[in-house]
Specification:
It is a single chain. By secondary structure, the chain is of the alpha+beta class. An eight-stranded antiparallel sheet has the order 2-3-4-5-6-1-7-8. The chain has a five-stranded mixed sheet with strand order 9-11-10-12-13, sandwiched between helices. Strands 14-15 form a two-stranded antiparallel sheet. It is elongated. A hairpin with a 3-residue loop joins strand 2 and strand 3.
């Protein structure tokens, strides 16, 4: 396993009328706390708890009339070492940006400690909300393609604007299933890559016809396609191909290798949230290319500017939601009654 895991994506409102902005952030934060083992009754906007898994601490901050930030840090582990998971949420509009990093602190003279996998909250959020990574929607389920609908996969694969890696699984030519469970792999790679499956040898043959045999995958093989896949003049060896005999010998090792490669690239490619907690706009880099300079702080997905809301109003609403505010909710002013007055010209005028 990799020493670190990192992912960043947007949680978006389902519809224009759905909960969005600060209130959506509050809803996502509650799901994060539940996933961390914090009891529902103990949830507050700020605090720390001891759970069965370890220590959990959260801190929220309202910056201005349209920006809310919230972070959780959870520590778990024992004699083998400690894993720290840092989850940061931010909203500057309708969507909520989620940045998750999990790192292992090595313990002992051997330097070997507990190693993090994919944090459990990642599939929870992807399954429970509409999510996107740099504009590309995320899905927990692998997508299966046949020879008839393969054009959709090929289009996505060679799209120069693609930023999310793809992992492709294939059936054996004899008809046997993929050598790695597609559902298990898609769950493990949630937030790191999308998973596709070619349904039979005819789909693999069609893929070879469309992008060339050097870029293809077939007969039980598994391939990791980085962004920037260009069969016309690209390097096929940049996209790792795992042969069926290697997978049969040790499928768990191959699955772990794919996960580790994606984690390493994510740590280099994904922007750091830095002191502002708001990620920079970025495109995934090709492996081996220099890390770009951090761009100006921006939301990942362009969203419409939020309505102007007073800072005190946002703070009061969130604090009431999280049970931290003892002041009563504001009471709406009653509508004044209409008053009819007779005027000398004999007409009725309504005064307020």
């Amino acid at each position: 396993m990799s020493d670190s895991y990192s992912t960043i994506f947007d949680v978006m409102p389902e519809t224009a009328e759905a909960t969005c902005g600060p209130l959506l952030l509050e809803q996502v934060a509650r799901d994060v706390l539940r996933s961390s083992g914090v009891p529902d009754g103990a949830m507050t906007y700020r605090g720390s708890w001891t759970t069965e898994a370890g220590q959990v601490a959260v801190d929220g901050e309202i910056l201005d009339s349209s920006t809310v930030r919230w972070k959780l840090q959870a520590k778990s582990g024992g004699k083998k070492g400690e894993v720290t998971t840092d989850i940061r949420l931010a909203t500057t509009g309708e969507a909520v940006e989620v940045h998750i990093t999990s790192r292992a602190a090595r313990a002992g003279s051997s330097g070997r400690g507990q190693l993090p996998g994919r944090p459990d909250i990642v599939p929870v959020l992807i399954a429970g909300y509409r999510t996107a990574q740099f504009g590309e929607e995320l899905d927990l389920n692998p997508t299966e393609y046949s020879a008839e609908n393969l054009a959709a996969f090929t289009f996505a694969l060679i799209n120069p604007d693609r930023v999310v890696p793809w992992v492709l699984l294939t059936y054996r030519n004899s008809g046997g299933p993929p050598l790695i469970d597609p559902l298990q792999l898609a769950d493990q790679l949630a937030g790191l890559a999308n998973v596709a499956v070619l349904s039979d040898k005819f789909a693999s043959m069609r893929l070879s016809d469309e992008i060339g045999k050097l870029f293809s995958c077939y007969d039980g093989g598994v391939r990791l396609y980085w962004p920037g896949c260009d069969p016309a003049d690209g390097d096929p060896y940049r996209h790792p191909l795992f042969m069926p005999w290697d997978i049969e010998a040790n499928p768990a090792q191959v699955q772990s290798d794919i996960f580790n490669r994606l984690c390493r690239e994510a740590l280099q490619s994904l922007p750091s949230s830095g002191p502002t907690w708001i990620a920079t706009t970025a495109r995934a880099r090709k492996p081996g290319t220099p890390k770009p300079e951090r761009a100006a702080s921006a939301s990942m997905s362009p969203v419409a500017p939020p309505p102007e809301i007073a800072l005190d109003d946002i703070s009061a609403r969130l604090m009431r939601l999280w049970g931290r505010d003892e002041s009563p909710a504001p009471v709406a002013e009653p509508e004044p009654e209409s008053l009819e007055v007779l005027v000398p010209v004999g007409e009725v005028e309504v005064l307020y």
